[in-house]
Structure formats: structure tokens, C-alpha cells
User: Fold this.
Amino acid sequence: MTRNLIARIIATVAIVGVVALLIVTRPAWGPAVAVWLDPAHPSDGHDHAHDKVTADDENRIELSEQAQQNIGLETISLDPATFSRTITVPGIVVEKPGHSDVEVTAPIAGVVRQVYPLPGETVEPSDPLFRLRLTHEEIVQAQADLLKTTEELDVVSREIARIDKITEGVIPGKTKVERQYDQQKLAAVQRAQTQALVLHGLSEEQVLGILNDRKLLQEVLVFAPGNVVKEPKRSRANSSENGDETTLKKTIEAASTEKEVTQAAAIDPQKDKHTDLVPPRTRRFFELEKLFVDQGQHVEVGKPLCKLGDHTSLYVEGRAFEREAQLITNALARNWKVAASLESGTAKTEIVEDLSIVYVSNAVDRDSRAFHFYVDLQNEVVRDSRTEEGHRFIAWKHKPGQRVQLLVPVEQWPNRLVVPAEAVVQEGAETFVFQRNGDLFERRTVHVEYQDQRSAVLANDGSVFPGEHIVVTGAYQLHLAIKNKTGGGVAPHAGHQH
Assistant:
């Protein structure tokens, strides 16, 4: 009897101890026992508790401000817009023929006394380029003849003035008429000689300086083409007494419109014949690309002195296949804007938007079978500096020879939800974007109607809504973070045999 009592007491104590142990360790074993006791739980002998993840955990994640900066996270507002489906065409930056390059030639024969700019230096219109000493005998003789005629005209003018002061009847009236005829003949000769000097390459101010100072011109300055150069007016030592300086100046200006533009005066020789011509575009900068002469070198009339480059406005020459010719022609007819993708030397490609197709070629290149078209490209100055000596050097953003990719629109879809291609993450058959709400980011499953290298068009089916903020950079890092958080980085049944 005693033994049975002792056995019962020991059994009771053991049961109480086990119950107490279970109560103390309940936080650790409660969920597992609950799952084990669940009748719906499969009885295959394996623990499937790691498969139970809530929908919020699968599709949401919160990031600190530092984490957002680490992945370079950026968002945009999802607003309906017109999407342009494009084709990619290779292109190259080229100069505008007949406009980008300007060759400066010697207006007269002479010796180069001074070269002002350095190779590669930037000059503005009307800046001095060269100083030439006249050696051409014809120009020297033409100046001498002009001075001689001017002096003879002064003598005749003074004679006529003297006759006018003498009492009428003392000198016959025929004498005055003869002197007036001589004056008219000399004035005609003077006009012809001034025109000849202008056509030889002297500016009107230089010719007027010869008449005012009564000295032969020994040196001339050659200027960068552009605005008309106005030299300081010189004091008139011996004024012509014919009183017709205004007429003479008009004569010189008329002659200036007939000469070829080689130095200071950039005058359109056809402006009097064709009043409907478009004025030449304003030039801001020239770059001295090539220098053909040195100091002390003798040059003849028309010899190239230097080559200037104007890169303020360039072309992008697109080179398409023949089958793409009609698509490009349609884009030009509808005035659709073109974009250019340029290598910027950084990880991010630079895109230049809103470029216009100027014209398309009417022929296919015989050798390459390429179809050429041209897009206008306005250049930008990225560096402007001067040396201690005052020489100016400019660096341009776009350079001839630079290769680009032209994005030509071939179709437009209005009222679409468009995001950058980097905003879309694809895994298997699923495609995701991330919607931002403060520091919380929610993964949304979307349907992509169209996607290229730049953009993706999202279906407006209620998965996302206009006005929401969508992540455009760092979306893939967010996707990886959610997978790591929910254990998606490892297969849920890895190592299991069912």
C-alpha cells in the first residue's frame, strides 16, 4: 500500500513538472503546436511554417532616407501623356556645308606683317586677323591716280570759286562753263577710281581715309567676317572744295555691294536684285581651325590666309536603310520631333529632345545603300576661358564627327501611362512597378502594352492610377530587398523531397 502511494506521488510530481515546463516555454512552441494540431495542415511530416507570409510582406517594404540615397531612388508622377513609338537610326554630327567653314583670303597682294589669333583661338566677327603691307603695284598706282585726280579737282573747284567772285563781264561766261565741264569730268574719273579701289579689296572707310589724309594706304587689316567694321574717322587736312563728299560716299557704298566679301564688310551682293532673300544668320564665334600663312610671307590676291569654323549650329546626318525611308518621310511631313542619344562619357546617356528634321535626301548612297536625312542641332558652350595674354578659347558640347543614335517617331499613342524602362521589373511572367507613399514602397503587378530601351507603356487597367508616384530609379534594388525580406531569395522547398 505504501509503495503504491509513493508511486502515485512521484507520477503526480512528474506530470506537474512537465506541465510547468510547457507553460514556461509556450512562446517558443505555441505556433508550431498550433500548426501541427491544425486539421488542414498536411500530414506529410514536414514543417511548412515558412510558407506562411502575408500579402503585405510580399509586396511592401519601408526604406530609410539613407537607404533611398544609397540606391539613388527617384520617382515621377504618373500622368497620362502621348507616347511616340520610335525607330533607332545611327547618325553622326557634321558641319553645315557652306556655313560652318569660312575661308579668309587675301584681299590684296602684300606681305603678312602680323598674325593676331592663335590656332584654335576663338574670334568674334570684325576681330582683326592679319595685318598686310601693300606691295601690289596696281593698287599703289590706283591710289596715286586717285590722289592726283582729287588734287586736280580741288584746283578746278578753287578756279570756279575765284571766277564767281570776279565782277561779271570781266571774264567771259564761256570760261566758267569750261571750268565746270572740267570739274564734272574729273568728278567722274574720281568716282571710277574709288570704285576700282573698293573692288580691289579696300573698304569704303579706307578709301575715304585716303581722300581725307591725302596719303597712300600702306597697310590694311583683314578682319573676321561678320558685321561691318567702322574705323575711326580721320581728321581732314586738306578738304576737297567740290562740296560733293556725300555723293562720293554713296558712290563708294554702291561699289561695295559689288565686291566679294573678303574682309571687313559682309555685304550681300544680291540684296539689291533680290529683296526677298533671307538675311544671313547672326554669327557669334569663329574658331581658327587652320592657319595657312606665317609672318613675313608674301601673299597674292585670293590666297587663303586661314580657315575659320563656326560650330554654333550643326547637323546630325542620319543614315537609315532604304526600308526606313518612308517612315522618316512621314515623320517629316507630320512635323514630329526627333530625339538624339549621345554618349556623354558618363554612365547615363544624354538625350537631346525636340530636334527637327530639316530635309531628307532624294537619293540613296550608291556605295553604302544608306538613306541620308539631316537634323538641326544647336550647339552649347561648355567652357569659355582666356589666357593671360588675352587669347580666348571655347569648348563646344557637340563636335563634328561625334556619333549619335537618332530616335525617329513612327507612331503616336495619345493618353497613355508612360514610365521609363528602368521603372519596370520583370521576373518570369510577372512585371512590377513600385508605388511610393512616403517611406513605404508597394510593389504593383502591371501589364506592359509596349516597351523599348527608353520607355514602357502601362495598361490603364486599375493596377496603377494617374497621379501616383512611381519609382523610376532603384526599382530593381527594391525588388531584391522585398525578396530578401520574405525569403524569396531561396526556393521555399529547397532540400525537401515530397
